[in-house]
Amino acid sequence: MALQKRNTADPKQANININDHSLYINRELSWLEFNRRVTEEARDPLTPPLEKLKFISIFSSNLDEYFMVRVGGLFRIMEVELADVDASGRTIRQQLNEISEKVRELVNEQYACFTGEVMPLLEKAGIWIHKIDDIDKKELKRLDEYFDTQIFPILTPLAVDAGHPFPFLSNLRINLMAVFKEASGVKVPQAYAFVEVPSVLQRLIPVYAEKSGFHDVLLEEMIRRHICRLFPGMEIKNCIAFRVTRNHDYDLQENEVMDLAQSVQAELKDRSNKIAVRLEIEPGAPKKIVNLLTQNLGVEDRYVFETKGPINLCDFLPLYDLPVAAANKDLPFNPRIPKQFSQDKDIFTVIREGDVLLHHPYDSFAAVIDFLNTAADDPDVLAIKQTLYRIGKDSPVIAALRRAAENGKQVTAVVELKARFDEEHNIDWARQMEESGVNTVYGFVRWKMHCKATLVVRREGKQLRRYVHVSSGNYNVITAKIYTDIGLFTCDPDFGNDVSSLFNVLTGFNSWTGGDIFTPETVASMFKKFMISPVTTQATIHRLIDREIQKSTPKSPGRILAKMNALVDTRTIAKLYEASRAGVHIDLIVRGMCCLRPGVPGVSDNIRVISILDRFLEHSRAYYFHNGGSPEIYSGSADWMPRNFKKRAEILYPIQNTDIKTRIIDEILLTYLSDNVKARLMKPDGTYVRLQPKEGERPVRSQSDLIAIARKGGVKSPPYEDLVRMIGKKKKGIKR
């Protein structure tokens, strides 16, 4: 691939102040720029109608989480009156001010796209969302009967008066506020009540069954039509839909936690600190009513957002699964089976013959399920150990671990109970595994367990051999089909040692000892090949960057290629600035937040940052260091963020096999760097510009090219979901 011309200036050029706030982009605003790029995918002419709807829904889902965690966290910090500024020089108050302005702009863009572009295209595809007033009398009668039998019995009116205080309005639930007409001559507060739109019911209600296409009305519109029945004798002046978002950020204190599972469950149930951080409300609500809501909810005026369409567009995602013409979605792709696994050999034999790289979703995750199921049933397998972060529903991974324990093997699962928004699922899975005899460990209070690793110990003759799977992605069969991730199978003894050491730390470290048993030096000495957070990862990354600086010359400049989800750590950014000034050529593929400013004269001339958004979520991490012509490549679970370096248990492992190194460089990294269709180039001010093919240049859409590579090099298999189900049900491996 031809690279842009880089500066190879003398590193002794004029000094810069690496602590200068202008050299760093605020992480919260950078995240909002990422979510803007999500909306751009919905507006891209290349994106089919239902895929546009998917991106609109992802934008809303992302924003919900952003307010619950990031904005909620900022409000919590502001409550304790900390006057600190971030790397960009902003106070908490300044960040909150800029966030509200930026979110308002982005939400307006989202709804303009939804109403002006997405819905007209969906209607052409045969999908309509009707206004209740536009429904004919015959269909209205049927809907009224449906309301009587299926909706009305569930509804609960919540009046507000002297005997009924303002109720707790649940997080992310749509409510209707009924405002009653004031009695003439009676001086009492404004009378009003609430009705929650039941989340247990589908929000899109089918109508016109006899017509072609798909027709729906919104659940809240049906409730609004009949709301007077909930308040007989009352005259309703206004009926207003709104939704409240509450803080979901929490911070468990290590010296206060005696049982992590109970503490997480208690935190999830505790509503006292779940302050309201956002109010979404439909257009036209009287100012008096908005003020009433903000005062009772404690929401600041700047965090009231009037939507220019239905609230919570996430609820429209079920439309994606409707059986409409294929042209309304991306062309289907079924993950391929790597050739090594298509041979008439068991999976352990394949791994013994050499390391195997899996690049999901192009390579099927079914190989990982095969690995676990084979281990569960193989009489020579003595132990299985696995980390579990986001597992998903109806997980065949859990089924394999439970069966392995029931078969008498020693099975250990390290479950991260604090995986945000998956806490309840993970607690439930942990209980189920315990019932089957799995040794279930809950990780740490102080750190999240974010590393992805599996260890299988197998008796082979007179020796024990350790088989390892490590990955950047979760053990989740659903996300493995839509996230890009890199995984590795190996039985390398050093990897076996390091994964064994990882589990010894995860299950054997006692946080109540004050670090007397496992000091950082002790932990570091246990690992031969892996970087391990929170101990060695950051320092090792910095050492590798320093080595590039030392080996870089004008004739043979250093080279760093790094693909990650986010780049936030200021110390690492400062190191990259130092490398750029020393003439090291740096290409960064950063999907989301990037707090580094590329292309700043004299600081980051040699740094190029691109972001790629497409049909699959870019989730893989790969780090390439040229090392004077003897490249080193690492992969794993860690981004370059403070939390990944210091607040999580993470691993980054080296790629040692020469063929696999070549594949990662040529097939993966350079394909992404060649993208001129879905790649956006980051500018020094933190905005992004879409790349386009130059005259005579071949259009490169990296994910499409990677699909073509998988189809050419892999083996066609049954549909992914059927294959995963078949492996688990029959307790057999991939058909060879």
Which key phrases capture this entry?
single chain, 736 residues, alpha/beta, polyphosphate kinase like, Endonuclease, Chain A, ten-stranded mixed sheet, eight-stranded mixed sheet, 35% helix, globular, disordered N terminus
Q: What is the terminal-to-terminal distance?
A: 37 Å
* Tertiary shape: globular
Mean pLDDT reading = 89
Q: What is the CATH superfamily label of one domain? A: Polyphosphate kinase middle domain
The tally of beta strands, per DSSP, is 27
Please give the share of residues in helix.
25-40%
Structural features, described:
- By secondary structure, the protein is an alpha/beta fold.
- Among the domains are: 49-328, Polyphosphate kinase middle domain (polyphosphate kinase like); 339-529 and 715-730, Endonuclease Chain A (Endonuclease, Chain A).
- The chain is built from 19 helices and 27 strands.
- A hairpin with a 5-residue loop joins strand 26 (679-682) and strand 27.
- Helix 1 packs parallel to helix 3 (92-124), helix 9 (366-377) runs parallel beside helix 10 and helix 9 packs parallel to helix 19 (720-730).
- The longest helix is centred in the N-terminal third of the chain and has 33 residues, at 92-124.
- The two termini are 37 Å apart.
